[in-house]
Amino acid sequence: MLGAASAKSQDESGDKSFKLCLNMSTIRGQELDAAEEIEIAGKAGYDSIEPWFRRINAYVENGGSLKDLKKRIDDHGLTVESAIGFAPWAVNDEAQRAAGLEEAKRDMDTLAQLGGVRIAAPPAGIQKDEIVALDDVADRYRALLELGDEMGIVPQVEMWGGHPVIGTVEKAVYVAIRAGHPKACFLGDVYHTYKGGSSFDSILLMGPQALQAYHMNDYPADPPRETIKDADRVFPGDGIAPITEILRNFKAVGAYPALSLELFNKSYWEMPALECAKIGLEKMKAAVAAAS
Length: 292
Known about the structure:
By secondary structure, the protein is of the alpha/beta class. The protein has one domain: Divalent-metal-dependent TIM barrel enzymes (TIM Barrel), CATH 3.20.20. It is built from 11 helices and 8 strands. Strands 3-2-1-8-7-6-5-4 form an 8-stranded parallel beta sheet. Helix 8 links the parallel strand 6 and strand 7. Helix 2 (about 35-45) packs parallel to helix 4 (about 65-75), helix 2 (about 35-45) crosses helix 11 and helix 6 (about 135-150) packs across helix 7. It is globular, with a radius of gyration of 18 Å. The two termini are about 25 Å apart. Residues about 1-15 have low confidence and may be disordered.
């Protein structure tokens, strides 16, 4: 079992429960700044947040401070379980990859100042026609993990369903194992698992170390898998994904990852942000209750 040793971040308190997290993509279309997004998450009642560096950087560039954002996070009793960036750490081009590591270092520094502990590591920057060997990706992921050791941040290898290099759960998990680093872990996603054609039973081959955060969402029966897109994601329970099975699979291996609501649905972006966030939280609570 990958990650049979428990992750301290989940288990040192003995608390066996899922943290419910708001990924800021869910309210991205409302065009709030980073401070306003934190306020929405806090007022809605989330345990934690998963911000995007693009929004945080824009906030700072416009005169805001990371210290202010950290205070808002703390005032609402929130944690920063993960964060979303797109540093090209896995590409073949050495110069581009070096620049990607520098970008990742800046992102990790920003995240550390916000009290965050993990960062998404998707296959960003790899072109559709670019051939990248998984063993090379694993070596590059290890380099990213070693940078994370220096910065106090854990990068999570993330798969994008259908991506030519890391497009399935099994490829992402291979990269994590092959990296040979004790902090290697996997950032999964309901939609991307479906889009990539992987099985949700893959969760049963992992454990708490591998599964520290997970993107929660659902998908409809139509459009079909071949043409479904990020924007088609729906609230958990509103589609056909086996949400109860997924959550029970986590429990079966003793994993209680932070469940981060990640949606890109334009109809949700037309809602008031607080309403959207509250509905999403209630849907996640209902899903967790159904799996108990």
